[in-house]
Write a structure and sequence with these properties.
The protein has 290 residues and is α/β, with parallel strands linked by helices. The protein has 10 helices and 13 strands. Helix 2 packs parallel to helix 4. The protein is globular.
């Protein structure tokens, strides 16, 4: 089997990549502060912000391809820890692009829909970036820098993802389901829109990008939905019809990082390459039937 290096194997997306792809790839997955064990995957503790250590990692693993998912992905953390998050979100990403360019191997980078300001959705790959928070700014800088260093890299802008949680990280639906079970109130925005997708579908999209894509591609779900309407659908499918969902507006919740109102991504380029997300209801039902 070919060797795949997955950065951020203890993160929600990285963990799902490792578990889904380990039958077809010889996977080495990096972790930093949250070690995990994944059967059939070589887990390596590595600080990706250490440039010397990163070069050593590539030399030892000798990957045939790289999926770079490691990131400081909490917008509020990035807003209050700009320098620390810049090291992993930007500096490490640029070095990974350079190392992949030297080896002439596929490099897939997971960016975000938050590179946009949310005022002109749906967004195409060609639309100019316009982030409203530090996390979005850092991902936009990484996109630009990586493509300058390695134009053959695949930059995958990801959306909200849901699915099976890993030991060290979970998707955004797990706290919601826990609150529903406990009968607690859940406040959800009616004025924030995304096009979410399951982790399994997102992983399929990333491997499509690895095989077929150079440059930027959007990997989002079929439907534009508000946080509140997503919560209603989740409550229905998970068997919590009596969930205490309270509609609210973004301005009602104080957060360190500003959130854009609508970052729905237009994904026809990915669809033409073979990316095929199910309708949102079907994706959720598939998850709860596992």
């Amino acid at each position: 089997m070919k060797k795949l290096l997955v950065t951020g194997a203890s993160g929600f997306l990285g963990w799902n990549i490792c578990n889904i792809a380990k039958k077809e790839w010889d996977i080495s997955g990096t972790v930093c502060s949250h070690p995990v064990k994944i059967d059939g995957v070589n887990i390596i503790k590595s600080d990706l912000t250490d440039s010397g250590g990163l070069r050593k990692l590539f030399s030892e693993v000798r990957p045939d391809a790289v999926l770079h998912t490691a990131a400081a992905a909490d917008p509020n953390y990035c807003q209050t820890h700009k320098n620390e998050s810049h090291k992993i979100n930007v500096d490490a990403s640029l070095q990974i692009a350079a190392l992949c360019a030297d080896l002439k191997i596929p490099c897939v980078f997971t960016s975000t829909d938050l590179v946009f300001d949310g005022l002109k959705a749906p967004y195409r790959e060609e639309d100019p970036v316009s982030p409203v928070n530090i996390y979005g700014e850092q991902k936009a800088l990484a996109e630009e820098g990586m493509l300058k260093i390695y134009p053959d890299a695949a930059i995958c802008r990801m959306v909200l993802m849901f699915g099976i949680p890993c030991p060290a990280s979970e998707s955004f639906i797990q706290p919601m389901i826990k609150a529903m079970r406990e009968g607690r109130e859940i406040r959800l925005f009616t004025d924030e829109f995304r096009n979410p997708v399951s982790a399994r579908t997102a992983v399929d999209g990333l491997f499509t990008a690895l095989k077929k894509v150079r440059g930027i591609i959007h990997l989002g779900g079929r439907e534009r939905v508000s946080r509140y309407d997503f919560g209603r659908l989740l409550a229905e499918i998970s068997g919590h019809a009596d969930a205490r969902l309270t509609p609210c507006l973004q301005k009602d919740v104080r957060m360190a990082a500003q959130r854009p109102p609508d970052v729905t991504l237009e994904c026809s380029k990915a669809t033409a390459s073979g990316f095929n997300p199910l309708p949102l209801k079907d994706e959720l039902e598939e998850l709860f039937c596992q």
